[in-house]
Specification:
Layout: H1 2-10, E1 19-21, E2 39-41, E3 47-49, H2 57-60, E4 77-79, H3 82-87
Length: 103
């Protein structure tokens, strides 16, 4: 319960500028602490949120900071070192149907 409250309260803070990537619709973030009742999977196994347009800030901003990303093995978002971010261009996720966030 404390983790859920903490995630809600910190969702009011801005997203780290060093976050890169895009949602790959794995759905793992929607299963943290307890499975979200609004999570569904399509026939190809990609997740989708049935309340996507009105989802709360904690969902919109996850992962907000690197330490919050508890499923970094599967998540499409990643964080770069601030020093290397200054010296390298921002990589954008390829635009495809799987990179369009519906989680």
């Amino acid at each position: 319960m404390f983790d859920k409250l903490k995630r809600f309260l910190t969702s009011m803070l801005p997203v780290d500028a060093n976050r890169r990537g895009a949602c790959n619709r794995c759905g793992e973030c929607c299963k943290l602490d307890y499975p979200c009742p609004f999570l569904r999977f399509d026939d190809s196994g990609l997740s989708q949120c049935i309340v996507y347009s009105v989802r709360p800030p904690s969902c919109r901003k996850y992962p907000r900071i690197a330490s919050e990303n508890r499923n970094h093995q599967t998540c499409g978002f990643f964080f770069v070192d601030p020093e290397s971010a200054k010296n390298s261009p921002i990589r954008r996720a390829p635009s495809s149907s799987t990179s369009k966030s519906r989680v």
